[in-house]
Amino acid sequence: MRIFVTGASGWIGSATVTELLYTDHQVLGLARSDTSAARVTALGAQVHRGSLDDLDSLRAGAAASDGVVHLGYNHDFSRMQDAAQTDLRAIEAFGDVLAGTDRPLVIASGVAGLATGRPSTEQDRPDPSSHPRVANAAAALALADRGVRSSAVRFASTVHGPGDHGFVAVLVAIAREKGVSAYLGDGDGRWPAVHRLDAGNLVRRAVDDAPSGSVWHAVAEEGVPTRAIAEAIGQGLGLPVASVRPDQAEEHFGWLGQFFGGDYPASSTQTRELLDWDPTQPGLITDLKGGSYFEVPTS
Question: Is residue 225 within 8 Å of residue 263, measured between CB atoms?
């Protein structure tokens, strides 16, 4: 199949593009800038110029393809509502093009906050009013009623690997700045994790085999204790490890403090069984011990 991928030059998107091409799909990758276009070309995919705000370009990309993987998103936390509205309009545009075709539409979501006191599962359906992006995922899944083979891949809180600039890289930068690798409280909050290559593999499996209206968990490790993450960062940087009181979370961690103290375990049992997904890449702590997170940029 020829798959249109938004976010094709991004962290998960580039791994997904590589996986799709490896399994003999063709890829049309959305690119807003010359830099993104060069990255998409280097991956071996065809470039489709446009942006998430350009609905005509999104419709054209979807119409020229046999399915859509929608991974692009504006993660500027200062403009969360705007980002969610842009995302919803993109999903609606894809739905209009794919309606009645039974072609796949795979969208990205997350596992944080789905359940309390237990690991979340693929069966959990959070209240759409809880967060705009949750509502967007619900809207995408509802496209199954219009003849779209829609599915949602919920990604672990940490999608890691060499070159990561996400949550764990931010924690490393904070530890380097503060001179201590910290965790909140007793550090027993759990972060689910998945390597980006395993995540890309799962997205491809969803493209190929996910039934309409289905949800999948890109979770290789159900929950890595935040204290273990802090200890691995401390070891990698040669810094002491210490607990920070929950009421000091924002002061120490900034915007990340509201997330790092949470407990978000998530199961992927159903995903592994039904999509025959078997994560094979290193776990988060092994990745941290590999040292790439602690390399200081030369420029």
Answer: no
pLDDT in tens, 4-42: 999 999 999 999 999 999 999 999 999 999 999 999 999
User: pLDDT value at position 78?
Assistant: 61
Q: How far apart are CA 93 and CA 60, in angstroms?
A: 10
Which residue is listed with tokens 């290559």? 197
With 0-12 CB in 10 A as exposed, 13-18 as middle and 19+ as buried, what is 284? buried
Q: Where in the sequence is the domain holding 230, given as residue range(s)?
A: 162-193+222-265+282-294
**Which CATH number covers residue 33?**
3.40.50.720
Residue 21 is assigned to a structural domain of this protein? yes
Q: Which residues contact 265 (CB under 8 A, 6 or more apart)?
A: 118, 119, 120, 190, 192, 222, 223
Total domains present in the chain: 2
120 within domain boundaries: yes
Pull the structure tokens for residue 100.
Answer: 């009645």
Let me know: does 291 contact 144? Beta carbons within 8 Å: no
> For the chain, how far is it from start to end, CA to CA, in angstroms?
40
> Is 276 part of any domain?
no
**Residue 101, token pair as written in the block:** 């075709």
User: What CATH code is carried by the domain that includes residue 252?
Assistant: 3.90.25
